[in-house]
Design a protein that fits this description.
105 residues; alpha+beta; Thiol Ester Dehydrase, Chain A; 4-stranded antiparallel sheet; 31% helix; 30% strand; elongated
Length: 105
């Protein structure tokens, strides 16, 4: 999936696609593009809220921890109010990869 995203986005940063390069980095392994993780969140939001998320909404996100190429993630939504949804993306080890919110205006 990471290589496919690199091709689609034309983001060929070696930290994402070159294992040898990544091993020498502070991450010690390839990591997913932050925008790839965010796009997976948006895909899930769209499945639940359909086209409503395309209408006058504000999406804010904070990338908290890298997602490594072999890791799986889970995405959780919490409807705080009719206007706001909190989103958390967690890795298998329980660490948050992304915290975000979607606000309907």
């Amino acid at each position: 999936m990471i290589n496919d995203y690199a091709e689609a986005s034309k983001d060929f940063n070696p930290i994402h696609i070159n294992e040898e390069f990544a091993k020498k980095s502070i991450f010690k392994s390839r990591i997913a593009h932050g925008m790839l993780t965010l796009s997976l969140i948006m895909e899930c939001l769209y499945k639940v809220y359909s086209e409503k998320i395309l209408e006058n909404t504000l999406f804010e996100a904070r990338l908290k921890n890298p997602v490594y190429s072999e890791e799986k993630i889970k995405i959780y939504f919490e409807e705080k109010t009719k206007e706001k949804i909190n989103i958390v993306c967690k890795k298998d080890n329980g660490d948050e990869a992304v915290s975000a919110s979607l606000i309907f205006k």
